[in-house]
């Protein structure tokens, strides 16, 4: 196994390159790819930057140039449903591009000529990712997220959700917009800007992937400020410890 680990922002991948054994940097397509051993797993870490094209380019490069066999995307997202709160964790069960609309030629959300609106991540990998997220909340959360931060973000017993993740080239900061996406997309739990692009690339190239999002905001009028605060203070701890647990688990795989 060779695991590609993508995040959009530096804060979402902080500490991973430092945790790598024998890291080697390669610059390609204006991005830094770090290859090395991460908790006994052969891994390549990279920042995609933001948006679907950036993510698709990065995922493709990981597969075609770096030979990764599996891809993990970690980062933050906006809540896509009222039951999902800031500090909760979402593991994608399916991904859709919410700004894809070639109607009336094709149904809304369908990626033309694929016949698909939704792309499925790998079940096994996603199950392991959920387990890593649960373990983080049960075993690392109180130790790694300080009291002050837990209070500031009202992180009261965060939960793990499995469900639909919607990606688009938009930072959603409008309550009415996220409600209309929730109405149009049953099972929606998070909105973000990259996951469904990675899922489409992985589907087309036959590479298993999994997508993790920690909820940083409610995708409403307060989203920009909430997002910035969350990313600056706690997003890195979530991503780092969940990735660590996931790699350890994968290393134990027969
Ligand atoms: N990532 C984190 N929060 C987001 C939001 N509200 N919209 C899109 N992407 C996000």
Automatic annotation (TrEMBL):
Keywords: Glycosidase, Hydrolase
Signal peptide as annotated in the record: none
Record-linked InterPro entries: Nucleoside_phosphorylase_d, Nucleoside_phosphorylase_sf
All residue ranges annotated as the Nucleoside phosphorylase domain in the record: 3-245
EC id: 3.2.2.9
Keyword Cell membrane: no
Keyword Hydrolase included in the entry's annotation: yes
Source superkingdom: Bacteria
GO molecular function annotation: adenosylhomocysteine nucleosidase activity
Name the UniProt record assigns to this protein: 5'-methylthioadenosine/adenosylhomocysteine nucleosidase
Organism, as annotated: Massilia agri
């Amino acid at each position: 196994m060779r695991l590609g680990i993508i995040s959009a922002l530096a804060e979402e991948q902080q500490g991973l390159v430092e945790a790598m054994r024998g890291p080697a940097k390669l610059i390609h397509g204006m991005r830094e790819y770090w290859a090395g051993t991460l908790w006994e797993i052969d891994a390549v870490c990279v920042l995609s930057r933001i948006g679907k094209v950036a993510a698709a380019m990065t995922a493709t490069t990981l597969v075609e140039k770096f030979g990764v066999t599996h891809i993990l995307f970690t980062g933050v997202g906006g809540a896509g449903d009222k039951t999902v709160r800031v500090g909760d964790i979402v593991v994608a069960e399916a991904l859709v591009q919410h700004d894809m609309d070639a109607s009336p030629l094709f149904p809304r959300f369908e990626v033309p000529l694929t016949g698909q609106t939704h792309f499925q991540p790998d079940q096994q990998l996603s199950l392991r990712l959920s387990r890593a997220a649960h373990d983080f909340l049960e075993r690392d959360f109180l130790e790694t997220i300080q009291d002050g931060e837990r209070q500031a973000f009202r992180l009261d017993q965060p939960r793990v959700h499995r469900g639909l993740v919607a990606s688009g080239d938009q930072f959603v900061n409008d309550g009415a917009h996220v409600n209309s996406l929730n109405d149009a997309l049953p099972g929606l739990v998070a909105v973000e800007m990259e996951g469904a692009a990675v899922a489409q690339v992985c589907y087309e190239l036959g590479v298993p992937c999994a997508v993790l999002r920690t909820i940083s905001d409610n995708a409403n009028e307060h989203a920009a400020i909430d997002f910035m605060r969350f990313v600056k203070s706690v997003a890195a701890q979530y991503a780092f410890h969940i990735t660590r647990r996931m790699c350890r688990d994968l290393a134990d795989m027969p």
